[in-house]
Design goal:
Helix 8 (about 155-165) runs antiparallel to helix 9, helix 11 packs parallel to helix 14 and helix 19 (about 425-435) packs antiparallel against helix 20. The chain is globular and about 70 Å long. The protein has helices at about 5-40, 40-70, 75-110, 115-120, 125-130, 135-140, 145-150, 155-165, 175-190, 205-240, 240-255, 260-275, 280-315, 325-335, 345-350, 355-380, 380-405, 410-420, 425-435, 440-465, 465-475. It contains 21 helices and no strands. The two termini are about 30 Å apart.
C-alpha cells in the first residue's frame, strides 16, 4: 500500500474506531454507572478485585501473540495466522489454569470467601477471548470496519446480560456472567467469520521469535497490572472493601481518558509496522497522533477533576463521598499521563519492546515506595499523592526513551500545546462558580458543563486548526494534504 493510501486508511480507521469507542466505550461507562446503582461499595469492591485479576491474565495473553502477529511480514499469511492462532490457544489454556490457581489465592489473601467461586468462573473468559483471535487478521489488513463490527459483539452481549442480571438482583454475579458471555459470543462469531481456515500449526522457531518480542511486554503488563491489583489489595487492608471499591471506581472513570488514544493508536499501528525503518515518518505520526488524542484526553481528565463533586452529588450518590479525592486527583494525573501515552506503539512497531518494560518497571518501583506506604498512613488522600509522584516519574522515563528514538522531538512544546486549549474552559467555569457562590442545582452543573465543553471545542479548533484540517483531508480524499506555507 503506498504512503498516501496508508495515511488515508489509517485516518478512516481512526474515524471508524471513534464511532466504535464512542458507542462501546460509552456503553461500558453507562454499565459502570448503572451497576454502581445496583451494587453497594463492598460488592463493587469484590468485583474490582476479580476484574483486576481477570484483566491481569487476559492482558498478558493479549500481548503474547497479537502485537507480534500484526508486526510480522511472513510471505504466507495463512500459515502465519495458523501458527499464531496455535500459540494464542496455548497461552489462553495456560492462563486459564493460572486463573484457577489465582482464585483461591485471592480468597485467602483478602480473607473473602465470596471471591472463590466467581474467580473460578472467570477462568472461562480466557478461551472465549482466544477464539476472537481471527479478528486480528482484519486488523492487520487495516479493514477497520469489519474488525470493529466483529469486536462489538463481545461488549454488546456483555452489557445486555450484565444489566439484565443486575436488575434481577444477581449482584456482582451479573458482572461475572456478563463478561464471560460476551467473550464467548464474540469468539463464536470470530471463528465463524475467520478469513483463513482454522488449523493448528506448532513451530518452535516461531515460539522463540514471539517470545523475544513479547516477554518485555509481558513484564510491562505484569508490572502495570500489579500496580492496579496492589492498589485494590492495600485499599482493602487500610480501609476495607469500601476503600477498594473507591479506588476501583476512580480507576474505571479515569480509564475513559484512554479511549481516544486507543482510537488513534490502534488505527496507526499496522501502518507503523510497515514503515518502521523510516524514523521521520514515525516521528510525524507520533506527534500528530498524540496531539489528536490529547484533544480529548486532557479536557476529559481535567473536567473529571473539575466536576468530580457534582458527579457524586447528582449521580453516584453519597455512598461514594470517600472517592472524591481520588476522582479529583486521578482526573489530573490521567490528563498528564496522556502526554505521549501512545509511545509504546512506536517501539513495538520497530521491534524494540525492552524500553516499554523498563518504563513500567520504574513506575511500579515508585508506586511501591510511595503510594502504598502513603495509603496505609493517610488513607485515600495519601494514595492519591503517591499516584501523583508515580505519574511524574513515569512521564520522565517515557520521555527519556522517546528522545532516544526521536532526537528531534520537542517535549516541552508538546506538553504546553496539550494543555493550552483547556485553560480558558477551566477559567470560565471557575469564574461562574465564584460569581454564583452558594448551593448549586443540577441545572447549574449542566450549564457549567456545557460552557466547559463549548469553550474547549472553540479553543481547540482555533489552536489546532491546521492539524484538524490535515486529518480531515485524509478522510475526504486519497490525495496527500499539503499544509499552506
Amino acid at each position: 500500500m503506498p504512503e498516501v493510501g496508508r495515511r488515508t486508511r489509517a485516518a478512516r480507521g481512526a474515524a471508524i474506531n471513534s464511532a466504535f469507542f464512542a458507542g462501546i466505550g460509552g456503553l461500558n461507562l453507562l454499565k459502570s454507572f448503572i451497576i454502581a446503582g445496583f451494587l453497594n461499595a463492598s460488592a463493587f469492591g469484590i468485583w474490582s478485585i476479580l476484574l483486576l485479576a481477570a484483566i491481569f491474565v487476559s492482558a498478558i495473553k493479549a500481548v503474547i501473540v497479537t502485537d507480534k502477529f500484526i508486526q510480522q511480514d511472513e510471505p504466507d499469511q495463512e500459515i502465519a495466522f495458523q501458527k499464531a492462532f496455535t500459540l494464542e490457544l496455548m497461552s489462553a489454556g495456560a492462563l486459564a489454569a493460572a486463573m484457577l490457581v489465582l482464585a483461591p489465592v485471592l480468597a485467602l489473601v483478602y480473607g473473602e470467601e465470596d471471591l472463590l467461586l466467581p474467580g473460578l468462573a472467570l477462568s472461562l473468559l480466557l478461551p472465549g477471548l482466544a477464539f476472537q483471535f481471527p479478528i486480528s487478521v482484519w486488523y492487520r489488513r487495516m479493514d477497520y470496519f469489519r474488525q470493529r463490527l466483529l469486536m462489538s459483539v463481545d461488549p454488546v452481549v456483555g452489557f445486555v446480560v450484565t444489566v439484565a442480571l443486575a436488575a434481577a438482583g444477581f449482584g456482582y454475579w451479573s458482572l461475572i456472567v456478563g463478561i464471560v458471555a460476551g467473550a464467548w459470543a464474540g469468539g463464536v462469531v470470530a471463528l465463524a467469520t475467520s478469513p483463513y481456515p482454522i488449523a493448528l500449526r506448532f513451530d518452535r522457531g516461531i515460539v522463540r521469535e514471539y517470545l523475544a518480542f513479547s516477554l518485555p511486554l509481558v513484564v510491562a503488563v505484569t508490572a502495570g497490572l500489579l500496580i492496579a491489583q496492589l492498589s485494590i489489595f492495600f485499599g482493602d487492608v487500610a480501609l476495607g472493601l469500601a476503600g477498594a471499591g473507591a479506588i476501583g471506581l476512580a480507576a474505571t472513570y479515569t480509564a475513559y481518558t484512554d479511549r481516544v488514544d486507543a482510537i488513534v493508536t490502534q488505527a496507526l499501528y499496522p501502518a507503523l509496522c510497515r514503515v518502521a525503518e523510516r524514523r521521520e515518518l514515525l516521528l510525524e505520526a507520533f506527534v500528530k497522533s498524540n496531539r489528536l488524542a490529547l484533544m480529548w484526553g486532557v479536557p476529559f481528565g481535567v473536567g473529571l477533576t473539575l466536576f468530580a463533586a457534582d458527579l457524586i452529588d447528582f449521580g453516584l450518590g453519597d455512598q461514594w463521598n470517600e472517592a472524591l479525592i481520588l476522582l479529583q486527583v486521578f482526573g489530573v494525573t490521567a490528563a498528564v499521563n496522556h502526554i505521549g501515552f501512545n509511545w509504546s506503539a512506536f517501539f513495538r512497531a520497530t521491534g524494540n519492546t525492552v524500553p516499554i518494560a523498563k518504563v513500567v518497571f520504574v513506575a511500579f518501583i515508585v508506586f511501591a515506595a510511595t503510594a502504598i506506604p502513603l495509603l496505609l498512613a493517610y488513607g485515600l488522600a495519601g494514595y492519591a499523592a503517591g499516584v501523583v509522584v508515580m505519574t511524574v516519574f513515569s512521564l520522565v522515563a517515557r520521555f527519556y526513551f522517546l528522545n532516544k528514538l526521536f532526537p528531534a522531538f520537542r517535549g516541552v512544546v508538546h506538553i504546553v500545546r496539550a494543555f493550552v486549549p483547556t485553560v480558558p474552559a477551566v477559567a470560565a467555569v471557575l469564574v461562574i462558580r465564584v460569581a454564583s457562590a452558594g448551593e448549586r442545582a443540577l441545572e447549574d452543573v449542566l450549564l457549567e458543563l456545557a460552557i466547559y465543553a463549548g469553550v474547549t471545542v472553540i479553543a481547540t479548533l482555533g489552536f489546532e486548526r491546521a492539524l484538524l484540517a490535515e486529518a480531515a483531508s485524509y478522510l475526504r480524499s486519497r490525495r496527500p494534504f499539503v499544509q499552506p506555507g
